[in-house]
Amino acid sequence: MKPGNIKKTTITKTLAITTIAGLSAITIGCSTGMHKSKTMTAKNDGDIMVPANYRSWPKFVSTVDKMKTGQVREIYINKTGMKTQKGNAFPDGTVSIMEIYGAQKSPTGELLKDSKGKLIKGKLSKVFVMEKGAGWGSKQAKGTINNGDWLYGAYLADAKTPATKDFTSCRSCHAPLADKDYIFRYDEHFDTAMH
């Protein structure tokens, strides 16, 4: 049947069924405690949730020690982001997770290190997430620090309880990295991946 011969009633019924199905899915999502579905579009920092399976993703770089702050950081990236080639921006749909652990300390307060001189992870304290979506940057309120189309989320160790509502510090920290698509350790990631 040619598209021009489809009856108006068939189109109306199809639209009605699609609308009811969509509303039912949203209602079910709300009643089961889902925070966001893949079909919903994030609009602001804090809308981005931590995917449950992120620890099965590739590491973006090896574990990062932050001696000054006494932190150990683990950084993951999803398969969409891993497809990126050096010199290119990350595609829409890229998600990066950074876990922050306190480093273990001796009874006298010195940072403990393993046999390779790396800090030893203590308790997980926070989980940060970055996600990139088409046009998300243009939807930010006037005065928001530009970070391209990236949005941020910050959570406590349970990866559910928000750690902040103000993402100015996240955006300020990443803003100077525009030539690296606002991603820290961009070069390190690709240099490691090429070897």
TrEMBL record:
InterPro entries: Cytochrome_P460 (IPR032033), Cytochrome_P460_sp (IPR038142)
Coiled-coil spans in chain: none
CDD domains: cyt_P460_fam
PROSITE patterns in UniProt: PROKAR_LIPOPROTEIN (PS51257)
Ranges of residues in domain Cytochrome P460: 51-184
Protein name stated in the entry: Cytochrome P460
Pfam families in the cross-refs: Cytochrome_P460 (PF16694)
